Amino acid sequence: MSSDYYEVLGVARDASADDIKRAYRKKAMKLHPDVAGPGSEEAFKEAQEAYEVLQDPQKRAVFDRGGDPAHQGAGGFGDAGFGGGGFDFTNLVDAMFGGGSPFGGQGGSRRGPRSRVRRGQDALVRLRLTLAEAVFGVTKPLDVDTAVVCPKCHGKGSDGDSEPVTCTTCEGAGEVITVQRSFLGDIRTTQPCPTCRGYGSVIPNPCSECSGEGRVRTSRTINVKIPAGVDDGNRIHLDSQGEVGPGGGPAGDLYVELSVAPHEVFRRDGANLEMAIEVPMTAAALGTTVSVRTLEADREDMDEDQSSVEVEIPAGTQSGARIVVEGRGIPRLRGGGRGDLGVSLLVRTPTKLDGHQKDLLREFAESRGEHEGRASVHTSGSKGVFSRLKEAFGG
């Protein structure tokens, strides 16, 4: 027995289990005979012995009291996962990375066969909405092409009463070990069994409908409830409505991504709706009240009195002015009522006048001192006017 196992591994006497494990991994990679040469065999065995003792709380306690843990019925120290005649590359990588390596299971143990029943993948589909459907909400049927449980074998994968049998290649382990010669010696690696693909069993009589998969692809229709106020790019999450997993496993989730078609009249701006109307020059000058359609007019279940709203246009209104109708915009998804309806006004100048109308306009212009046709440069607030006109025309 070594005089001091702590000194062999290079750790303090109060070192934690993780500190001891890290120190041993470092030593194992440095001193293994197939890596460092035959001259390191004794030092490697000594490191193995030290680790076997210090990683076991009972053996460590015996050693700390001055006893000999080798006589505690715990077995010898000659292997520790690195047997003679070459070494298991899986265990060497485990010594470096702490198990779970891509070559095998933790501590050199096998992972075992994988289950045929697994959760299905999530699915993403897209759904086109009208602006009215997005604003007020709707329940729409959606055709989904996805995997469902096989109706013939009900997910079992085998035909009739037949059952899967143990794979003769891996004897049910789901893995096989291959040996490859190298300068390090015989390198053994673990990989999924090529016969059963890691399942540990094979299906001698697979279902004729799903070919042993336990699921088939089909098209089905589901009803999707769209809440009021959704916007372009929003997603609806439907739990367990996605792909059924292999072996009839639990279905994944379905995500419905929404797109909203442009409207010929209304434009969305956050929680507000924007529209533009034309008014005659005389109406803008004298003031008037006009009836303006609302987005509710696109709904078949809406009363006529909700399909329009009266908008008062003050006398002297200029082209590009915006009148706000409160509460006739878009419902907010997280509550807080509805946005507003913005009505931008475009003052329409007449293009065809008869002689009498021209005389009246000349008389009107003379009365206002505008008959000479002088123009003035507008500066204050001109940017805002142009911006409103651009928005009104959908720019």
| Outline | elongated
Query: DSSP strand (E) fraction?
Result: 25-35%
Write down the domain tally. Answer: 3
Number of strands: 16
Helix/strand/pairing category: alpha+beta
Give a short overview.
This protein has 395 residues and is an alpha+beta fold.
What would you note in describing this structure?
By secondary structure, the chain is α+β, with helices and mostly antiparallel strands. It has 3 domains: 5-78, DnaJ domain (Helix Hairpins), CATH 1.10.287.110; 119-153 and 210-261, HSP40/DNAj peptide-binding domain (Sandwich), CATH 2.60.260; 267-392, Urease metallochaperone UreE, N-terminal domain (HSP40/DNAj peptide-binding domain, Sandwich). 23% of the residues lie in helices and 25% in strands. The protein contains 10 helices and 16 strands. It has helices at residues 5-9, 17-31, 33-36, 41-54, 57-64, 89-97, 131-136, 281-286, 355-367, 382-392; strands spanning 87-88, 123-129, 138-149, 165-166, 175-182, 185-192, 201-202, 215-226, 235-238, 254-260, 267-269, 272-280, 288-293, 308-313, 322-325, 341-348. Strands 11-12-16-15 form a 4-stranded mixed beta sheet. β11 and β12 (272-280) form a beta hairpin. The longest helix has 15 residues, at 17-31. It starts with a helix and ends with a helix. Residues 73-91 and 93-109 have low confidence and may be disordered. It holds the Pfam family DnaJ. Residues 100-119 are annotated as: Disordered. Zn(2+) 2 binds at residues 167, 170, 193, 196.
